[in-house]
Amino acid sequence: MKIEMNLFWATRRLTQSREDHLTEFFASALNISPIFRKRYSELTLSRFARKHRWTVPCIESISTQVRFEGTTCCPDMILRLSDGKTIACEHKLDALETLGPQQDERTQLDRYLDLPIDGLIYVRGSWKVPGSEVLQHPKYVHPLQGEHFLWRDFYPLFTDENVVMDWLRDGFERLGFTPPHPSVGEMSGPDDQENHRNRKNFAKLWGKTSSFAHRLGWSVNPGSIVELYLSQNPSSCAESIFISPTKFDRFLVRVTPRKASDHLLQPRLQQATDSLMPRTEITEREVPRKGGKKKVIDITSSLREILGDGTLSTDEIEDRLLEFAEPILLSIQK
């Protein structure tokens, strides 16, 4: 369906607060469309409601930018359910959580969980896990797989035919807030539009691997487009890990040892990769780093063989990536 004018996209450049702008249009869609509201409620709240033995959650009203008296808290969206319960929603594009004022310097999510609410939904443009106290809090609402919701989770819900839904659907496509597709195209070679698009799509497939690495204690950060950087894990013999699937069909896992554990890594990695399919090659080398050369251990394999014959679904591709990374990460835990 061709949209002659997209008011969501046309007004986006007029505001510096892109997150608030997205929230207002998203809340409007929830208000306008009972179908979208019901599907959103099922996706975000059904599992949480069953866990807490609530009745089936039904959103009765939606408010935005609601300030809580006596606090510095202003969640992006508040959902009032038909049974009187209150759900707060915090929306981010790519920004980190902001800290509170000097008298309460906790992050937004920590402060919001102390409010008189019954649940807290956190949505981001890209994966960035909140703190462990948030994840373990009984009021924190998260999906079955993953530590928080992503904007692309809602794209398949835009099925109702109304103008606001059309604006958001088109806007989400322009912003890249769409689920990954299983066709993994060429990612090496020149940085042209097609390669860039393929890399951005592949970057969406790291969810299960990122979550697993985080549970092992790694700080997980994305590379410029598609790589993963793992660092700051005191429970590992490795100082850092770099994972890159982009160059000439090569899938690379580069492990930088800690000096004290240098002698432990290669035999552990060899044992972990012996049973992996496809076959891997382990090479010890030195690479230039700030302050001089650094020893690394490279584990390389074929990306195409890992991904199979092109018939896998996106869930199956995510599983394949995790199945390859999991024994490597486990082998270098202390």
Task: Write a structural description.
By secondary structure, this protein is of the alpha+beta class. It has 2 domains: 11-170; 207-331, no CATH class. Helix content is 35%, strand content 21%. It contains 11 helices and 12 strands. Strands 1, 2, 3, 4, 5 and 6 form a 6-stranded mixed sheet that branches. Strands 7-8-9-10-12-11 form a 6-stranded antiparallel sheet. Helix 2 (18-32) crosses helix 3. The longest helix has 18 residues, at 34-51. The protein is globular and about 60 Å long. The termini are far apart.
Number of domains: 2
Average pLDDT metric: 90
* Sequence stretches where pLDDT stays below 50 over 5 or more residues: none
Q: How many helical elements?
A: 11
Helix content: 25-40%
Q: What is the helix/strand order?
A: HHHEEEHEHEEHHHEEEEHEEHH
Helix and strand content put the structural class at alpha+beta
Radius of gyration: 22 Å
Major β-sheet profile: 6 strands, mixed
Q: Which word captures the global form?
A: globular
**Distance between the amino and carboxyl termini:** 55 Å
* Extended strand count: 12
How would you sum up this structure in a few lines?
The chain is an alpha+beta fold and 334 residues long. The protein has 2 domains: 11-170; 207-331, no CATH class.
